[in-house]
Write a structure and sequence with these properties.
4 helices
């Protein structure tokens, strides 16, 4: 069941995420950063990519996985 929508996040979440926008060069990376962080902060007992994608509207497992494996983490 899809539980979380982007509109459900409080305004402070977006303001906090914007602090890291300069780290990511692509719009998709910024979006998936927010999805991943929202999944970690969500109410689900399991904090794995499959569960995060299942609990959120507009989030897919493949996009989250690509973000985690291909993002520039060395910066």
């Amino acid at each position: 069941m899809k539980e979380t929508t982007p509109a459900a996040m409080p305004p402070c979440f977006e303001r906090w995420c914007q602090r890291f926008d300069d780290v990511f060069t692509h719009k998709a990376q910024k979006r998936e950063f927010r999805h991943y962080l929202g999944g970690l902060l969500g109410e689900s007992e399991r904090k794995n990519l499959t569960q995060m994608a299942e609990n959120a509207v507009g989030v897919t497992y493949h996009r989250l996985h690509h973000f985690l494996t291909e993002a520039p983490w060395s910066k």
